[in-house]
Amino acid sequence: MENMNFFAVDLGATSGRTILGTVCKDKIALTELTRFPNNIIETGGHYYWDIYALYNEIIKGLQKVARENIQIQSIGIDTWGVDFVMFGKDGAILRTPYCYRDPHTVGALEEYFTHVPKERVYDITGIQFMNFNSLFQLSTLRRNGCSALEAADKILFMPDALSYMLTGQMVTEYTIASTSQMLNPRTKRFEKELLDVVGVREEQFGRFVFPGEKIGVLSEEVQRMTGLGAVPVIAVAGHDTASAVAAVPARDERFAYLSSGTWSLMGIEVKDAIINKESYEKNFTNEGGVEGTTRFLKNICGMWLLERCRKEWEATNNYSYTELIDAALAVPAFRSIINPDAPCFANPSSMVEAIRMYCEKTGQPKPETYGELTRCIFDSLALRYRQVFGYLQSMAPFCIDRLHVIGGGSRNNLLNQFTCNAVGVPVTAGPSEGTALGNIMLQAKAFGLVGTMQEMRDMIASSIELAEFLPTDADEWAAAYEKYLACYREDL
């Protein structure tokens, strides 16, 4: 088979990339084309995304492809969730899109629940509550008399807005729409009861598409600017996490995944949404996946804790990860344990002091050295993963016999082994480039190079080096988990 090239746009909340994916026979290879910042604009008391800058960076990536005479089959775009762009009747952007970090949605949940009770919203959507979900953003804009919303003819989520700017075609991709808390996962449509409260209609969104469907081709304007022809733009899994999960190199359905990075999420892939009393109380979410699946998952803190500590240490010692791991292994295990998702760790002025304060208030020794702090973080993350893994085991419709770790954290062998010991099932680590691989493979699927998601996963597994971990020290980790539960607090 002749090599086929696909162009992926992967946009995160701090930076973005354009990536070339080359598929040949049963292998796939990635090449980073461009990398650029995704800057938040602060003005007038609000935070915005610079969508024009993002569009321009996509154009630059496409121009590079044309300059190097690379023939690409298609283009796919994935981004973070929930945020959206409002368009007027003439197709023009009415306002630079708000950033989910904007504080204007503080208190939005409580106000919305005066119209539709909290339990009812969860029963309809199965989405965990966060004040910046699209539903609450729209409710806030309506309450504040947003002129752009009043004039909006169409509302498009970020990847769909960028696809429109490339093609002139307005769509709503299923996985990104599922992050909004407006979609019913049973019907896979927006729920009128929820939309009515914020004064928007389903017709104000683009036509629904699912991963693998063609959106359109590059407009004549974009063709002229880039030097490319009428290249198709494919709806991949527009939500970056959905693309990442599509890249999990699993052999069967009996797995859980841990997307590990600055933030983590752990979940399973199921045919039908899991919406019940336990999922509500444990604040699990049901998000759209590929081939009509649902990603049943929970957001968890990740390496944010250590990254913040490292930033504090920079002033005196710029420790490498290798130095921190060596120091962590040199101190006693489980001396101090925290709940990584406690509110005090959300955004403290000093993460080091926040960790020490938590330990002091729970009657534990305060970690003093950077080795003790690093060990505390690694031990605690692994035990938190064990806790959430247990929740999944109790709610999953199948026995979970393996955990797949994907994302940047899949390269952290120490944390992978700790996690393996804690959850008590084998762990497969990799790929670290899950989102880009999922994006590319969904384009390849649209072109018939693979037929099913399992074939996608098999090709990824044969293309990358995976690391395998087996549980050890079961009794020691069982005792540590009991200590974790005794020290577990949600009120600090």
Physical arrangement of strands within the biggest beta sheet: 17-18-16-15-19-20-21
Q: How many domains, as an integer? A: 2
Number of strands: 21
Largest sheet geometry: 7 strands, mixed
Task: Give the helix level as a range of percent.
Answer: 25-40%
Structure description:
- With 492 residues, the chain is an alpha/beta fold.
- It has two domains: 4-238, Nucleotidyltransferase, domain 5, CATH 3.30.420.40; 242-430 and 466-492, ATPase, nucleotide binding domain (Nucleotidyltransferase, domain 5, 2-Layer Sandwich), CATH 3.30.420.40.
- Helix content is 39%, strand content 21%.
- The protein has helices at residues 51-67, 108-112, 118-125, 134-143, 147-151, 158-167, 174-177, 192-198, 220-226, 240-246, 277-281, 304-313, 321-329, 351-361, 370-395, 413-423, 434-446, 453-463, 474-487; strands spanning 4-11, 15-24, 27-37, 40-43, 46-49, 72-78, 84-87, 154-157, 171-173, 183-184, 189-190, 207-209, 214-217, 232-234, 255-259, 263-270, 285-288, 294-301, 402-406, 427-429, 467-469.
- The strands form six sheets. It has a seven-stranded mixed sheet with strand order 17-18-16-15-19-20-21, with helices on both faces. The chain has a six-stranded mixed sheet with strand order 3-2-1-6-14-13, sandwiched between helices. Strands 4-5 form a two-stranded antiparallel sheet.
- Strand 19, helix 16 and strand 20 form a beta-alpha-beta unit.
- Helix 13 crosses helix 15 (370-395) and helix 15 crosses helix 16.
- The protein is globular and about 65 Å long.
- The model has no long low-confidence stretch (mean pLDDT 95).
